[in-house]
């Protein structure tokens, strides 16, 4: 139990009143993911707690703060002196300062934005050069020649001099806030956040006896492996998997002596030196959830020319049949809320935060949702975008109506341009539909970003080449693509049914990595995939807007219209 502060209020719980102590919560978004916009996860949790009477909450986005810290004048000055013989970084301080100003200027052109982002990426290269353990970019965080085992993690997080995140946290953590907090909640949604998050948890424990609760999509994907990973509880007291709203409020009740710990849903905790799991599971009724709360977000810290907020219509995936995908594992099953409630949220955000651009983080919006939103959002006068699937229902008329409503961009998982491979993947579409949807979106002047991968088990070299030829054929109709090799991930259908795809699962040495090693007689070799991707980068992607110049989830496309981005495609040579 925690030592609660003696400050009480009455709280209504169904038909009964009980005496409830106020607990102070500090929510933290740790590094690392792209710093162009705030995450949706913590605002959802905060709104739910506030709806249930929990008011003492502070939210700190340490991810965007870390980027601002690492490319600050003060930090870069130290690095420039240290690496003064590297002529490439001679003007990095001046260039980065102007780039930060430019990338946040709401009148910046696409060409200027692209050039500014390239200068920031150069600054991050210098930060990485000086880092012992990490390579930091605008979109990613990778490790320098280390595995992600318990021993390696412990070595890195304990190194308070060479671990750049330990240095950052020591510099920026507000001890007064920590000392006045009872619970620190850390949201870990990406694998890239794991080491920074554990580094943070260790430092917090050194400063205060505060309880630490971690949750998020990444930890959910570890699932019951958490039971075999007592190391995680060296610096964390509780781990919540799945959807966190109800479990977090139940934990709040437990901390106030109003519930047994075994009754807290989706909870892992340590008891008697053994990791245990609560017997209760919960899933949210999404149509009853409150509007996410972004009150503590400082928008001018983000690397974006305008305010862009993430929003959702549903949780889970309405299709949920793709054999390679594990994204919906965090949500169990598909649930949606009404388009009217979504539009009501947009109106609230527009009024409260003066936000004009929104991006739906749903796995994919259903054509019926797109249709209803296109009718309801028009009066809001905003820009918006989303991910969609290649469906026959994405008609010419629907695309025209979407464009009129302010729909500027869409991300679509192409994956392959071969009907037999699409069937093998469980995509539920075909090449004819794909061509038609691209034509409909293009004719409506909606920006298109295609995603694909090569090397799916059963795909031949010629079929992989077909996918690249397809992208080459439609490159005048799309703005950007992102291509990679096939990755087998935990909790995907193939991972659970490897025999169906003649896949042999390899030995997993690093339990903290969601990528699963595998062998397959039917899959392309790494060398073959490398050759194909090299062709893609040199002969196809060079004619499109590079992923590093666009924001994750297509946020970049939400700001610029079709004509501006089409022009940028022809001007790439000016900044390359």
Structure description:
The chain is α/β, with parallel strands linked by helices and 576 residues long. It folds into three domains: 173 residues, Rossmann fold; 78 residues, no CATH class; 233 residues, tm_1862 like domain (pyruvate-formate lyase- activating enzyme, Alpha-Beta Horseshoe), CATH 3.80.30. Helices cover 38% and strands 17% of the residues. The protein has 21 helices and 21 strands. The strands form six sheets. Strands 4-3-7-8-9-10-11 form a seven-stranded mixed beta sheet, sandwiched between helices. The chain has a six-stranded parallel beta sheet with strand order 12-15-16-17-18-19. Strands 1-2 form a two-stranded antiparallel ribbon. Helix 3 runs antiparallel to helix 4 and helix 7 packs across helix 9. The protein is globular and about 60 Å long. The N and C termini lie far apart (57 Å).
Low-confidence stretches: 1-21, 547-554
Biggest sheet character = 7 strands, mixed
Structural class of the secondary elements?
alpha/beta
C-alpha-based Rg, rounded: 24 Å
Name the overall outline.
globular
CATH superfamily of the largest domain: tm_1862 like domain
Number of strand segments: 21
Query: Termini distance?
Result: 57 Å
CATH first level of the largest domain: Alpha Beta
Strand content: 15-25%
Q: Give average pLDDT, whole number.
A: 89
User: What is the helical fraction, as a range of percent?
Assistant: 25-40%
Number of helices: 21
The CATH architecture term of the largest domain is Alpha-Beta Horseshoe
- Order of neighbouring strands in the sheet with most strands: 4-3-7-8-9-10-11
Number of domains: 3
CATH fold category name of the largest domain: pyruvate-formate lyase- activating enzyme
Protein name: Radical SAM superfamily enzyme YgiQ, UPF0313 family
GO molecular function, one term: metal ion binding
Pfam families: Radical_SAM
Cofactor: [4Fe-4S] cluster
